[in-house]
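quick one: flavin mononucleotide bound model?
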Amino acid sequence: MTASEPVHTKKGGGKVLIAFFSWGGNTRGVAREIQKQTGADMFEITLVQPYSTSYNTVLMEAQEDQHKGARPEIADLPTDIDGYDVILLGYPNWWASVPMPIASFLEMYDFSGKTIVPFCSHGGGRFGQSLTAIAKLAPDAVMGEGLSVHYSGGSTLPDDVSAWLSTNGIERQ
Ligand SMILES: Cc1cc2nc3c(=O)[nH]c(=O)nc-3n(C[C@H](O)[C@H](O)[C@H](O)COP(=O)(O)O)c2cc1C
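yep, here:
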């Protein structure tokens, strides 16, 4: 092992990537708090053709994408994620599941030997069916313990994130 290689944690098992999609900024805020506490690399999933910035329109677009099983094209996607052992995967609860960009992301890579730890921002529906959806989209991944955050998470967010990171054995990178 050379000095440039990541220091491996005992439980969480290695180098961490925070990958997230956010439409309104709440999930991005959670991702930033996680980044602050871990120092992990971060990749924001953005689309070649972004969703509408209008709330009423995105509600319809998201529902339509879900119904047709769309796989929206992700911009500037990393060619591989081989260097990461743990993916902290963030998204808003959309229609009680993952936004379809998360499906696009998960289908791009081989997650065998990797752990996916979901974090989800929601408006009351917590994870909805999203954990099942992720398990189906990345059947070879080990699933960590998820974190659900109500909207932006409020004043308890730093403590909630810290407790969740410990539960998953994730230490500062
Ligand atoms: C298209 C769409 C669908 C949503 N569906 C749900 C839902 O089914 N259950 C829920 O609790 N919240 C739902 N919400 C609310 C979001 O999960 C919530 O506002 C979240 O904080 C948004 O995160 P973001 O700011 O990172 O996009 C929905 C929001 C949008 C835009």
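The first strand starts at residue 16 and ends at 20.
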